[in-house]
Amino acid sequence: MTDPILPGPDCTTMTEVRAGVDALDRDLVALLARRFAYMDAAARIKPARTAVRDEARKTQVIANACAEARAVGVPEAVVADLWERLVEASIAYELAAFDRR
Fold first, then answer.
1. DSSP designation for 73
2. Is 13 within 8 Å of 64 (Cβ atoms)?
3. How far apart are CA 17 and CA 5, in angstroms?
4. Per-residue pLDDT of the chain (101 residues; tens, 9 = 90+)
5. Considering the entire predicted model, what is its pTM?
6. Which end of the chain is more exposed for a tag (fewer CB within 10 A), N or C?
7. Distance between CA atoms of 61 and 90, rounded to whole angstroms?
8. d(CA 49, CA 47)
9. pLDDT 10s digits, 75-87
10. Backbone angle region of 32, left / alpha / beta, with phi > 0 → left and psi within -120 to 50 → alpha
């Protein structure tokens, strides 16, 4: 039997903290897999390779993530940096997927 994953505020040991972080990391990777499946769909749907990079959409995605960060009390600058990297990685992935089609 495995120990339940505790919410962060309920953790009293580093073992509990690490178990929670490891579980969340697994969840985050699963969510990233779902997100990249949308990049595969976008590469399939977009009519031209030049349509892959959309700076207006990139700005919107990052702004949405920053707004959500503010709403839940997560450092906005950290989220902005992570989403910049995520969106650029997604664009690179989508370009590669487009080129494979």
1. T
2. no
3. 9
4. 566 899 999 999 999 999 999 999 999 999 999 999 999 999 999 999 999 999 999 999 999 999 999 999 999 999 999 999 999 999 999 999 999 98
5. 0.89
6. N
7. 12
8. 7
9. 999 999 999 999 9
10. alpha
Quote the CA–CA distance of 7 and 97 in Å, as a whole number.
Answer: 38
Instruction: Find, among 68, 100, 97, the residue nearest to 82 by Cα.
Output: 68
CA distances from 97 to 29, 64, 100 (A): 19, 25, 5
CB 65 within 8 A of CB 80: yes
Q: What is the CA radius of gyration of the chain?
A: 17
